[in-house]
Specification:
about 325 residues, alpha/beta, 8 strands, about 45% helix, globular, binds phosphoenolpyruvate, binds magnesium ion
Length: about 325
């Protein structure tokens, strides 16, 4: 099967009726980068930066981080890399950071909340990213933004650091694009100015889904209880697509579901055109997409919703099975 997908590598991710998706890969280690040319991804849609912090017993040094980020960008060549700033707390705990016990860590002091309350580490990481870019384009995004003002504050922190780096004589990035991860339902209903200010938005579907259904992604008893293809969740995603489209804000989906071919198809049906996934998923997602007509499946989704079904899965999988996919 790997071989069959290899022949697809340089073919476009385009459906039979001409809907083209940009397929990006997720990464978190330097060791992931060799997959980029091999899997046919157009870039790294999510680089999770916490691993470098989690594998140590002390805070990493800025110079080491800057060298690592430069190395990642060197390896990616002309393909863009979106770095997500540190996402700690909840399931990702730093041994050297003091934090109290929390009754509900997933709803607790994590990600950008920590970054804004204790900006020392975030500032250091942003400096390392700016230096590591060495005059190349830099894309960064903040995890777990729940309110517009959090994005605004984090963005201003980055702009301040960029100005300071310039004063210090460091080469600025060729361009700086600052985005937000949409991982809490609240951000989907942020004021218009959020959608205007964000250079791009990336849905962290793993978290968004757990908060949409109030079902812990770590809890085996409930984590599979609610379907990603439920009509309610797809309708919610469709609303986010519409808000982003109204403001011209680029949108992508980067949770694990993006790498499941049937789910990826459903996201294309509700309007997503950018997905980011594990490198090994690019081939299977592309292979399925190339065999279908999105407009036809869109009609199937509208029909399923109008008929009041709970999930789009039986209709979509039935349709695929009938055609031998
Ligand atoms: C997500 O929540 O979907 C996501 C991409 O981030 P993580 O899985 O690292 O929380
Ligand atoms: Mg997340």
């Amino acid at each position: 099967a790997q071989h069959a997908y290899a022949t697809l590598r340089d073919k476009p991710a385009t459906s039979r009726d001409g809907v083209t998706l940009s397929l990006h890969m997720n990464a978190g280690l330097m060791a992931d980068l060799p997959s980029l040319p091999k899997c046919g991804a157009v870039g790294v849609g999510l680089f999770r930066t916490e691993l470098q912090f989690l594998i140590r017993t002390t805070v990493p040094k800025r110079t080491d981080l800057a060298a690592l980020y430069a190395h990642i960008l060197d390896s990616a060549g002309t393909k863009p890399v979106i770095f997500r700033t540190l996402d700690i707390g909840s399931d990702k705990v730093l041994p050297y950071m003091k934090r109290g016990e929390e009754p509900n860590p997933a709803l607790g002091w994590r990600a950008i909340r920590v970054g804004l309350d204790r900006p020392g580490i975030l500032r250091m990481q942003v400096q390392a990213l700016l230096r590591g870019s060495k005059g190349r384009p830099l894309h960064l995004m903040f995890p777990f933004v729940a309110e517009y003002t959090e994005f605004e504050a984090a963005r201003e922190l980055v702009l301040r650091e960029a100005a300071r780096e310039r004063e210090l004589g460091h080469v600025p990035p060729a361009s700086l694009r600052i985005g937000a991860m949409l991982e809490t339902p609240s951000l989907a209903y942020a004021p218009d100015k959020f959608f205007e200010l964000a250079d791009f938005i990336s849905i962290g579907g793993n978290d968004l889904k757990q908060f949409f259904f109030a079902a812990d992604r770590e809890n085996e008893k409930v984590r599979r209880r609610y379907d990603t293809l439920s009509v309610s969740f797809l309708t919610f995603l469709e609303e986010i697509v519409a808000r982003c489209a109204a403001h011209g804000t680029p949108l992508s989906f980067c949770g694990e579901d993006a790498g499941r071919p049937v789910e990826a198809l459903a996201f294309a049906i509700v309007g997503f055109r950018n997905l980011s996934m594990r490198p090994a998923s690019i081939g299977p997602v592309k292979a399925l997409l190339r065999q279908v007509e999105i407009a036809e499946l869109r009609a199937l989704f509208d029909e399923t919703r109008a008929e009041g079904h709970r999930s789009f899965r039986p209709a979509l999988e039935g349709w695929l099975e009938e055609r031998g996919f």
